[in-house]
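testing teh design pipeline on a random one, pls ignore if ur not involved
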């Protein structure tokens, strides 16, 4: 029987979640849901020097916003906890000790100074930064070089030490990556990574393997940047739990920015978000803007992320989460880096706003308007307004410009756009138009438009010349949906009032 599908996202809580991180979550999530499996989040916080307050909470807030909540995590009850590695500290030592006993790892007593000296003494032109590896290990102070009784004495005395993996000298380590196919590494270039640190904490390498085993992970998916660590993980699987029990691996392609790998700095430089939500670095107070705050819908955000490295083999680009679950397949993820294009990202959001039901947008729009001091008391008007303007909005804040004038009479008019062509005839037209529409019984855009055009013909003015002034009277500026639709939603009295007010200013 094949294993139950269990996948994990294993972030280190060191800062905001960028596009690549959320895409890793998404692919894990889609795979789990497609196969009726479990998606869990494990917090990998063994490197306490990199701990950043608030980062863990941020990760869960982001997953919630994206609608990608795990089945098991520190916040979601599960049977394989704790889901925070710092709370599993006691678990790891015995595996490291087992490796030492079996000859696959060793104690190393080298001090910081000794390690520095090694890096200095063995530095050559060909090897500018020597590593602790098979060429060096026998020249250092460890349980491979010291006599056994001395090792025992040092350990008994509680001498600070680490446990390092003893990477075989000339072996080829291979595994099948679900995206890349067979990947092989020559172990002679892999260093003897620390597995257990001086403070008794495991390093990421040991903890990831032990926890993937204990949490019965069937598939381990992560970003391509982790590929160089894979040989150490494969060796650990081989030595501890057996290669046949290892999860299936996949390394997702890098996300590329305008110049190579997408970085946080690209965001600041080119003016687009890189993080899912706003992130304020607690040390520097530096704020990095998120997709959420920029005005992206979570549905659009996960849709655009899904397409950064995957497609379903057709031309389709807009997918709901449910469709993604149905169509997602690892075979269709490409191994080449995926280029992030902000204009395209905005296109996705625009398509999603258009596709959305008004009821799904109303809370967002209402709160955006209210944040901009535009009180919205008439909810049925809000519905009609959203319906009318949503096709013109790319990012959610666009709703502010496109709809505030429905709820608030303009206080200023873009008079300069009208003035040069303003004359007595046009003024006359609007005065007569007020009388005309005042008598209308049926207040609908088509009827208003009809009255407008008839009156223009009577006055011998091209309606095109009157539409801009009319728009500026109602809106204040040169934007918004078709002007007769605006008039319809404003209602007769308000339309007349706005024309009268503007006429006073236009002169
Ligand atoms: N803790 C690693 C990270 O911060 C996880 C890598 C993995 O999934 O194995 O991304």
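output:
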């Amino acid at each position: 029987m094949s294993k139950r599908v269990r996948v994990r996202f294993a972030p280190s809580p060191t800062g905001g979640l960028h596009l690549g991180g959320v895409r890793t979550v998404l692919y894990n999530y889609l795979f789990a849901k497609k196969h009726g499996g479990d998606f869990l989040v494990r917090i990998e916080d063994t490197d306490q020097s990199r701990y950043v307050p608030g980062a863990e909470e941020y990760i869960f807030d982001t997953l919630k916003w994206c609608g990608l909540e795990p089945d098991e995590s520190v916040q979601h009850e599960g049977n394989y906890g704790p889901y925070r590695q710092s709370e599993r500290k006691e678990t790891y030592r015995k595996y490291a000790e087992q490796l030492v006993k079996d000859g696959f790892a060793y104690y190393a007593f080298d001090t910081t100074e000794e390690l520095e000296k090694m890096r200095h003494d063995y530095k050559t032109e060909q090897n500018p930064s020597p590593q602790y590896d098979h060429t060096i290990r026998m020249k250092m102070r460890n349980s491979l070089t010291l006599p056994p009784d001395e090792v025992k004495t040092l350990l008994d005395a509680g001498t600070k030490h680490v446990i390092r993996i003893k990477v075989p000298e000339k072996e080829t380590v291979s595994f099948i990556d679900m995206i890349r196919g067979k990947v092989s590494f020559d172990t002679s270039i892999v260093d003897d990574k620390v597995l257990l640190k001086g403070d008794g904490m495991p390093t990421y390498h040991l903890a990831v393997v032990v926890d993937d085993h204990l949490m019965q992970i069937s598939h381990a998916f992560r970003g391509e940047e982790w590929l160089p660590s894979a040989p150490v993980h494969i060796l650990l699987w081989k030595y501890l739990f057996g290669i046949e029990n290892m999860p299936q691996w996949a390394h997702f392609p890098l996300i590329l920015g305008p110049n190579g790998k997408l970085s946080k700095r690209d965001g600041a430089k080119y003016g687009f978000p890189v993080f899912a939500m706003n992130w304020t670095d607690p040390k520097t107070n530096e704020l990095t803007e998120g997709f959420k705050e920029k005005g992206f819908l979570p549905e659009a955000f996960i849709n655009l992320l899904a397409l950064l490295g995957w497609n379903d083999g057709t031309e389709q680009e807009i997918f709901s989460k449910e469709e993604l679950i149905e169509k997602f397949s690892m075979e269709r993820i490409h191994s080449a880096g995926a280029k992030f294009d902000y204009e395209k990202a905005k296109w996705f959001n625009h398509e999603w706003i258009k596709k959305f039901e008004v009821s799904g947008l109303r809370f967002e729009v209402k709160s955006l308007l209210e944040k901009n001091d535009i009180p919205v008391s008439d909810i049925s008007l809000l519905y009609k307004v959203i319906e009318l303007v949503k096709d013109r909005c790319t990012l959610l804040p666009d709703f502010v410009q496109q709809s505030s004038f429905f709820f608030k009479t303009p206080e200023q008019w873009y008079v300069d756009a009208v003035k040069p062509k303003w004359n007595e005839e046009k003024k006359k037209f609007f005065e007569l138009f007020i009388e005309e529409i005042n008598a209308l019984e049926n207040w609908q855009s088509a009827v208003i438009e009809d009255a407008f055009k008839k009156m223009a013909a009577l006055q011998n003015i091209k309606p095109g010349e009157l539409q801009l002034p009319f728009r500026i009277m109602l809106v204040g500026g040169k934007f918004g949906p078709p002007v007769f639709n605006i008039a319809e939603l404003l209602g007769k009295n308000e339309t007349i009032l706005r024309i009268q007010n503007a006429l006073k200013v236009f002169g």
